[in-house]
Specification:
Helices cover 48% and strands 16% of the residues. The protein contains 9 helices and 8 strands. The strands form 2 sheets. A 5-stranded antiparallel sheet has the order 6-7-5-4-8, covered by helices on one side.
Length: 226
């Protein structure tokens, strides 16, 4: 899905609101829950969700358990790349903050600890501890993750987009250290039994940062483009 087409899909106000709700939620939500939040009939909302799915912006899964037909649950797609210009104010502010920070080892340690606190806060409290929950949060943050979880409990995540690219160019050590901390904080909540074995930043324009987590108690999983 190219940015222009994705932007056209999100030009419809209800679709834009649905996408924004799922970005904010950072976890799967049902068609019914989304319809309730918008005060709209679920049938109409479902059609908008399906259009977003066709555009590659959302992914659909089925709720487990319960009686009757499993309900659809929706999350931001692994390769979602909505169109339109990026908001400059936040990008500029993050770049300025990165430049203003002392880059010494002691300060970078504090940056990583702060990132870890942020990561814990970003993890939704009412989701299962699974690779899919981790993927949903990372996708909602704009990283376009590809995630594989092996049977031996090793998770490998490749980030196909860098939403922080401008800030990384200003201060890669600060921004990447913060991101490492955020990742560790997410894992504290979603895989407390695991350990962050590797976090390898790449060129922000090319993306592809690599994360390896060992010892996770997640079912085998493969997401992202084939």
């Amino acid at each position: 899905m190219d940015n222009a087409t994705a932007g056209d899909v999100l030009a419809q106000p209800t679709r834009a609101k649905l996408f924004a709700l799922l970005e904010e939620a950072r976890q799967p939500l049902s068609s019914e829950a989304l319809a309730t939040k918008l005060g709209l009939h679920v049938n109409g909302v479902r059609r908008h969700l399906e259009r977003l799915e066709e555009a590659g912006l959302l992914e659909r899964s089925k709720a487990q358990g319960g009686r009757g037909r499993p309900a659809d649950r929706w999350t931001i797609g692994s390769s979602a790349g909505p169109g339109g210009p990026a908001p400059r104010a936040y990008a500029d502010l993050s770049g300025w903050l990165a430049r203003a920070l002392d880059r010494g080892p002691a300060r970078l340690g504090q940056v990583e600890r702060t990132g870890r606190e942020i990561g814990r806060e970003l993890a939704p409290a009412d989701v299962d501890r699974s690779g899919e929950s981790f993927r949903a949060v990372v996708a909602a943050l704009g990283f376009q993750p590809e995630l594989e979880v092996d049977e031996d409990g090793t998770a490998r995540c490749r980030l196909c987009n860098c939403p922080y690219r401008d800030s990384v160019k200003e201060s890669p050590d600060v921004v990447c250290t913060l991101h490492r901390g955020i990742t560790a904080g997410l894992l504290d909540e979603l895989a407390p039994e695991g350990s962050l074995a590797s976090f390898v930043p790449h060129d922000p324009d090319e993306a592809g940062c690599e994360i390896v987590v060992e010892g996770v108690d997640w079912p085998p999983l493969r997401t992202g483009p084939s």
